[in-house]
Amino acid sequence: MNKIELLAPAGNLEKLKWALNYGADAVYIGGQDYSLRANTHNFTLEQIKEAVNYAHNLHKKVYVAVNIIFHDRDLVGVESYLAQLNEMGIDAIIVSDPAIIALWQKHKYHFGLHISTQASALNELTVAFYEQEGAERVVLAREASKEDILKIKGQTNIELECFIHGAMCTSFSGRCVLSNYLTNRDSNRGGCAQICRWSFTNQDQPDFSMTPKDLNMVAYIADMINIGIKSFKVEGRMRSNYYIATVIYYYRQIIDKIMVGQLSSGLTNYYLAILNRCANRDSAPQFYQALPTVKEQYFIGRDEVSNQDFLGIVLNYDQISGIVTLEQRNYFKKGTVVEFFGPNTACFSQEITDFYDEKDNELSIARHPQMIVKFKTLNPVIAGDIMRLKVFDISRYL
What was the pLDDT predicted at 2? Predict the structure, then answer.
């Protein structure tokens, strides 16, 4: 069976490194123009070059989103931009506008062509058309059902990529004009104001919204592997480092254990519990098995509480003394039970007992963001590992 690609979002260079280090096979990024996430920091040309070098040194890939719907004025400079991406050695661009497909064909760039989910591909003829145009991959619409995917896979030879986790859009495949209408920010050119997340007031009625719950395909990953999906995509270029690291780390575990027949139902439920907790919205499989119902949407009484489980990042570990130096991210104190995990560190838990600041003053509480603390750990850790609040006991799931 071919290798399954786990594809992560990266809103900046720091997030790119977190994603790749925590298990992604590839990342997708946006430059400062032509990308649908204009509200994140995105990458300068110099940063794209650094990103490509960093990823390729790890034998991993970088895809660049050039996926806005172009107006005439947006085309100014795009050929020069694509030429520079070509020189940098990116692995593919992600596009939805036929104008960019035509430029790719004209110039015969070295990088591949991936068709964006914004193209709303949902049937075999559409996917076959892009295959004939030279695309090596189609990112299917998020509204694709299992039946749709099976038919497409059975009638085409192109690589298929599917979203497996992250935010959904109220409008079809992101083709929204609410943002344009209410804020004059064009959602199809990178300026979405996320109107579907707003709460609207109706006289004598509770406030209401019209937003779908997040996508979560944990229960169907094995099924999608058997169908022959090439790449599993996580949404979230604007999400936090902790979110990216956690989601990628656990989907990496899920995929790898499926491939060797070691994913039990108990372990699946444990991973699902962690993934549901690291986001601030509920999640569901959405369109895969059936059309979403009222249970897969938010209308009234939405509660999005920020997660405070991310407690710190390992900066250094002394092998002789067993002392970790940690950059704190959220409040913890003596008696807090925490967990450490990382790309090469098996998850373990311990209670915080004696700990100290960087000047070796004893502490009882770590309450200042990004303060440096030190204490002994039960097991060795590695720089870049994460310390979080222990919420779930894995033994209860096995």
Answer: 65
Provide the pLDDT for residue 293. Answer: 86
Contact 68, 32 (CB under 8 A): no
pLDDT value at 189 more than 70: no
Give the chain's domains with CATH numbers. 5-298 (3.20.20.70), 310-396 (2.40.30.10)
Distances (CA, A) of 268 to 215, 231, 254, 255, 290: 16, 20, 7, 11, 22
Q: Rounded distance, CA 162 to CA 184, Å? A: 30
Sign of CA pseudo-dihedral 187, 210, 220, 276:
positive
- How do strand 323-328 and strand 297-298 relate by DSSP bridges? unpaired
* pLDDT tier for residue 34 given thresholds of 50, 70 and 90: confident
Per the rule left: phi > 0, alpha: psi between -120 and 50, beta: everything else, 59 is: left
Q: Are 19 and 249 in contact (CB under 8 A)?
A: no
CA distance linking residue 391 with residue 248, whole number of Å: 19
Could you report the per-residue pLDDT of 204-252, keeping only the tens digit for each?
Answer: 777 777 788 889 999 999 999 999 999 999 998 888 899 999 999 999 9
